[in-house]
Amino acid sequence: DARVTQTPRDKVTEMGQEVTMRCQPILGHNTVFWYRQTMMQGLELLAYFRNRAPLDDSGMPKDRFSAEMPDATLATLKIQPSEPRDSAVYFCASGLGQGLAFFGQGTRLTVV
Amino acid sequence: QKEVEQDPGPLSVPEGAIVSLNCTYSNSAFQYFMWYRQYSRKGPELLMYTYSSGNKEDGRFTAQVDKSSKYISLFIRDSQPSDSATYLCAMSEFGANNLFFGTGTRLTVIP
After folding, report:
1. In this complex, which of A42, A50, A105 lies closest to B43 when CB atoms are compared?
2. A6: which DSSP letter?
3. Low-confidence stretches of chain A (pLDDT beneath 50)
4. From CA B108, how far away is CA A83, in angstroms rounded?
């Protein structure tokens, strides 16, 4: 059963702490996306990779967010330092291009 | 103006009704059109995928794309309480990777 796996599912942290979210894309998929979902803004694209190379990270606040793909089976999204306004659900998705993307179950982040 | 506009609802219908969900868009370069279903506290699940204009049917679901009007629709026939979810439209350009999402329409089917 191929699926995108995200960890952790839930994270509560204090303001100023570092947060790392992990994603295992579907095997063989060459495109990986990071999205953030809030009630106010809906789904916002933060960054995406193709063949592990970052193609677009214009949606990320560069001073505190970073996204990497150390290998084809792992994508990470880090926030340092975290702020209350970062509270949201963060989704990873993977695909093969042509508009297709398959989402993980998300990481629900709460920064207090 | 956002590239993809979607009425957020909420939309409530009785079980068995036909549901119509719609999105409009402004970018004429969009070629791939998707509908995702998202249950509460879950990730979006790909429901329908179409390329260019036309209709696509899958069981009780029909997706329509009218590129001349920049308008896409999702129809749900014989709606069931299990269809209660948020439905998001998404679009992409040919050769591009990123998707542009609507804000989602929250649907409730009442037994």
Report:
1. A105
2. E
3. none
4. 34
SS3 B74: strand
Cβ pair A97:B32 closer than 8 A: no
Residues A33, B99: C-beta atoms closer than 8 Å: yes
CA distance B59 to B76: 9
Query: What's chain B's length in residues?
Result: 111
**CA-to-CA separations, A4 to A14, A41, A93, B37, B40, in angstroms, rounded:** 27, 23, 7, 16, 18
pLDDT at A62: 87
Is A102 near chain B, with CB under 8 Å?
A: yes
pLDDT, tens digit, for every residue of A59-85?
A: 898 899 999 999 999 999 999 999 999
